[in-house]
Design brief:
Length: 202
Amino acid sequence: MVTVWTPAHFGIMRPVMTATLRIDVGTGLLLAARQVLSPHWDARPAGVVPDLIVVHGISLPEGVFGGPWIDRLFCGNLSASAHPDFREIAALRVSAHAVIRRDGVVSQYVPFGERAWHAGRSRHEGREACNDFSVGIELEGADTVPYEEAQYQALGQLIGALCATYPSFSPQRVVGHSDIAPGRKTDPGPAFDWPRLRALLM
């Protein structure tokens, strides 16, 4: 079962405005976003301030869009029998802070101040374990399938909201999963248009 939380569950909010997306400083929640509570997160190490944004790509099954499977994977209730591709991943304990679907709709799974389990074995600028100091954003897609304009717009707005809310983030510190786990991960893949995103962040 997926538990969907709305912002009202978290009491009084103190929003920070940016474009059309806002993040509540106190809770780390994206206001007006669909909130899906994942159990796959924990606290960041003491004194660690997140300063890296990691862009991922995900589709379940691979190359198939829509359906409940991403929610179920991140919430720990993906059935291994639902599809042959799920047999090896159903027991994984993984999550991301947010997922942007093909239509640009954003779902949040982990508050931005907490550590989501999205990067796995990873390294950036000599620092290991990127989950400790990053936010993970998944785009529903596949390495060789062009992403949708609505996804770029939502991603640009979400990165803008993160930078406006948390001074440690900047548009210059946005990388792909493949950048922090080369040889192990390829997403968001060659279909992702980095210049297009950079132009949105200028």
